[in-house]
Amino acid sequence: MRKFLSLALISALVIGLLTACGPKRDPYAKAGKSEGKPDKLVVWENADDGVQLNNTKKWAGEFTKKTGIQVEVVPVALLKQQEKLTLDGPAGKGADLVTWPHDRLGEAVTKGLLQPIQVDNSVKNQFDDVAMKALTYGGKLYGLPKAIESVALIYNKKLMGQVPATYDELFQYAKANNKPDEQKYGVLFEANNFYYTYFLFAAKGAAVFKEQDGTLDPNEIGLNSPEAVQGMNEVQKWFTEARLPQSLKADTVNGLFKSGKVAAVINGPWAIKDYQAAGINVGVAPLPKIDGKDAQTFIGVKGWYLSAYSKYPKYATELMQFLTSKEALASRFKETGEIPPQKELLNDPMIKNNPVVNGFAKQASKGVPMPSIPEMGVVWEPINNAHTFVAQGKQTPEQALNDAVKIMKEKIQTMKQ
User: Which UniProt keywords apply (predicted)?
Assistant: First the structure.
């Protein structure tokens, strides 16, 4: 994924976004008439995180003070919002702004749940390029980013004094220190989950879908290519040589790390507060170079999107800009720990001089966005099952990947019918 830690000095966002536009300049004007000012806008925010919810409520209140428009913030689980909008939107009960990870964007657009947003380049240019690309589908921008995520190497400073410089050194460290009989490990991660192992496939040159001129081709799946088989061979070594448990879940990884039984894990920023609360002195670093190249991980971007059912797209877009202003995202970072993909903030000492956050930011700068086309939805289960079969020794990497891709193609074909 392309680098995003470049400098950009953008100011006075709040003033700009709250400045009224004349009817002739209103990009959302319908039939030559501007939409009326709403009494209320509705926002759906993550129901699974009270801190995120409260932060959004706080800034919604600030928007109300400045505009006089009431904002109702409703808690709805991230992965349930599309389903809920499908039902509530046509009934006039949906939200104006919704939020979910960007890899579900293509599915939402295909279902007709979202409408493109109209914002000036001065707004677009505030944000990291890769985050903006993640929220673009079919050449149209559907939202603005509020957080960017990537896994990185999280280590216990008490147990790992120096981070391995290369992937080979990291693997050898794991081999020497992984002692499953004692429930002690040098390195632990969910190696049966493609989200965490993608960097091993990418290092060998494998791609999920073939990309042509910036467009992904769902008919060209690269997950059983010779390069992908090499990647899965590397995954297999973590089970056969580094002795990772065959069925490893997040709860186990987190529990052992918090108990001081693991020197390092591959995990994301969502885990940090829990680790620190357990008294672990954590460090964060990008994954070590693999085959002489930067390790490429999947990047996830959380964005605000404009509902296709919103009756007030212009004002809802102003609210979206307000919630992703420099001030709002700085506040969100301080309260939630979510890394804001806003160029100026990424270079702010608050983030740049924070070694934990900067470790994730550096890794994210080397990553690639998860594919957001609808067909990505049928990739996860087959590829993760392939990981499990390889981990259990039931199939070779080549057999497991061939079977997985066959299932993916069948499901994609079914989607087209």
Answer: Cell membrane, Lipoprotein, Membrane, Signal, Sugar transport, Transport
Model pLDDT for residues 15-72, shown as the tens digit of each residue? 233 333 333 334 444 433 457 899 999 999 999 999 999 999 999 999 999 999 999 9
Residue 118 has a CB neighbour count (10 Å cut-off) of 14
From its phi and psi, is residue 337 left (phi > 0), alpha (psi between -120 and 50) or beta?
left
User: What is the distance between the alpha carbons of residues 306 and 317, in angstroms, rounded to a whole number?
Assistant: 7
Let me know whether 259 and 325 are in one domain.
no
pLDDT digits (tens, 9 = 90+) for 217-275: 999 999 999 999 999 999 999 999 999 999 889 999 999 999 999 999 999 999 998 99
Question: How many CA atoms are closer than 13 Å to the CA of 104, on its beta-carbon side?
Answer: 17
- Neighbour tally for 295: CB within 10 Å: 24
Burial code (b: 16+ CB inside 10 Å, e: under 16) for 245-262 equals beebebeebbebbbeebb
* Cβ-based neighbour number of residue 357 at 10 Å: 20
Residue 311 shares a structural domain with residue 203 = no
394 and 308 both lie in a single domain:
no
Question: Tokens 């950009």 belong to which residue?
Answer: 8
The Cα–Cα gap between 149 and 195 comes to 12
Tokens 């891709």 belong to residue: 405
Left (φ > 0), alpha (ψ -120 to 50) or beta: where does 81 sit? alpha
Centroid of chain to Cα 161: 29
Asked whether residue 57 is assigned to any structural domain, the reply reads yes
What SS3 class is residue 184? strand
* Cα 36 to Cα 94: distance, rounded to the nearest angstrom: 19
Please report where in the chains the tokens 């960007």 appear, as a residue.
102
In sequence order, the β-bridge partners of residue 305 are 98, 143
Which residue range(s) make up the domain with 247?
151-298+371-416
Do 411 and 338 fall into the same domain?
no
Tokens of 300: 């996830």
Q: Looking at the whole model, is its pTM more than 0.70?
A: yes
C-beta separation of 202 from 296 below 8 A: yes
In a domain, 5, yes or no: no
Q: In what order do the strands lie in the sheet with 282-285?
A: 185-188, 262-267, 152-156, 282-285
**Helix, strand, coil tally for the chain in percent (to 5):** 45, 20, 35
The answer to whether position 226 is within a domain reads: yes
Measured CA to CA, the distance from residue 226 to residue 327 in angstroms comes to: 48
